[in-house]
Amino acid sequence: MTTLFDPLQLGPLTLANRVVMAPLTRNRAPGAIPTALMATYYRQRANPQDGAGLIISEATAISHQAQGYADVPGIWSDEQVQAWKPVTAAVHAAGGKIFMQLWHVGRVSHVDLQPGGQAPVAPSAITAKTKTVLIQDGVARFVDTSAPRALALSELPGIVQDYRRAARNAMAAGFDGVEVHGANGYLLDQFLRSGSNQRTDAYGGPIENRAQLLVEVMLAVCDEIGAAKVGLRLSPVTPANDASDPHPQPLFEHVVRQLAPLKMAYLHIIEGSTGAARDYVQGDAPFDYAALKEAYRAAGGSAAWMVNNAYDRALADQALATGADLVAFGRPFIANPDLTRRLREGAALTAGNRMTYYGGGAEGYTDYKTL
Q: Which value, in Å, is the radius of gyration of the alpha carbons in the chain?
């Protein structure tokens, strides 16, 4: 039987195990520039004997407009590309593999984080009932998001090109691939869901229209760097960041059918409410993840199937036994750089200090002990 500790061929990459470090926003990149401390953090989790077979980086803004949280890194400038190179080099020196998660937050932002203090952008001018993070007097503080403006139809091709440029820059920075963030109520997810997308043009209304921007982004990114180096993260029912849609099953089955021909590296599926209940129900019925996978495979999709949300060793083994290929772990990797070893040996996990999750220095970031 397949286990978490078996290798997997992922496009051109051979992963040493099936444990994936999920993206974790840590707010330690002042000015959107990666730091030497970040290189240490990722290196600590990159040894495939003790850590992740694949690391997915913290969400990384594709443009200044794409930023929604203080001190998160970017990938739109040459300075950022150069600053990421020591991070990827450290991961590779430890024997690891790393993808960059490409991020546009859309309406989940604040005017203080936007170029020129402008309003955040969104499919429709609907404020998200959620909060974001600002660093004030050296302390991370949660604040309400700002009211967004609706993107003009003429702006959408530019956003697609921002994703294309970001993917190209990520490869120049030494990443092994990229993951497009299409989940958790951020821009691409906002376009997918009727709760945030009330447009009346070709990108609003029917499911086919609401999925169009995501499809265009995926086509552009796959064309730029090759589909075998591209993953996509989706969260069909999470309420994160005020994400809502009354009929998620047909919506996300349409999305995966549209993407099946791309032959991408993996699909990363968050099951239930992000970081909370796995059995969360949004819409008219419990979501059928097996049906989602069946729809994808029936349409010819061959990407590795990655599952995520509150997994432990037993649940991960069950998922692999029923057809999953990879299991992503988020918060456990914060305080357990050697998470894979701990899972293999059945060792206790260290509890993280939530006060140090967002912003700060080495404390609660690079000072956790290994076995």
A: 19
Dump pLDDT digits (tens) for 23-59: 999 999 999 999 999 999 999 999 999 999 999 999 9
User: In which residue are the tokens 């290196």 written?
Assistant: 43
What number is the average pLDDT over the span 78-90?
Answer: 98
The pLDDT mean for the chain works out to: 97
H-run or E-run covering 139: strand 139-144
Taking a C-beta distance cutoff of 8 angstroms, is the pair 256, 295 a contact?
Answer: yes
Which of these is catalytic: 69, 163, 186, 296? 186
Query: How many of the other CB atoms lie within 10 Å of CB of 36?
Result: 11
pLDDT tens-place string over residues 330-357: 999 999 999 999 999 999 999 999 999 9
Catalytic (active site) residue 186: yes
Spatial CB neighbours of 277, under 8 Å, sequence gap ≥ 6: none
Closest of 75, 80, 67 to residue 112, by C-alpha = 67
- Asked whether 181 and 188 are in contact (CB, 8 A), the reply is yes
Hey, what long-range contacts does 187-191 have (CB within 8 A, 24 or more apart)? 187/66, 187/104, 187/105, 187/106, 187/107, 187/121, 187/122, 187/123, 187/159, 188/104, 188/106, 188/213, 188/214, 188/217, 189/234, 189/235, 189/243, 190/106, 190/107, 190/122, 190/123, 190/243, 191/123
**Exposure of 82 in the CB half-sphere (CA atoms within 13 A):** 3
Strand partners, 56: 99
Report pLDDT for 136. Answer: 84
pLDDT at 135: 87
Task: Give the Cα separation of 29 and 42 in Å (integer).
Answer: 14
Provide the Cα torsion 347, 352, 357, 360; round to 10°. -100
Q: What is the pLDDT of residues 249-282, one digit of tens each?
A: 999 999 999 999 999 999 999 999 999 999 999 9
Cα distance between residue 18 and residue 4, in whole Å: 5
Residues 6+ apart with CB under 8 A from 276: 310
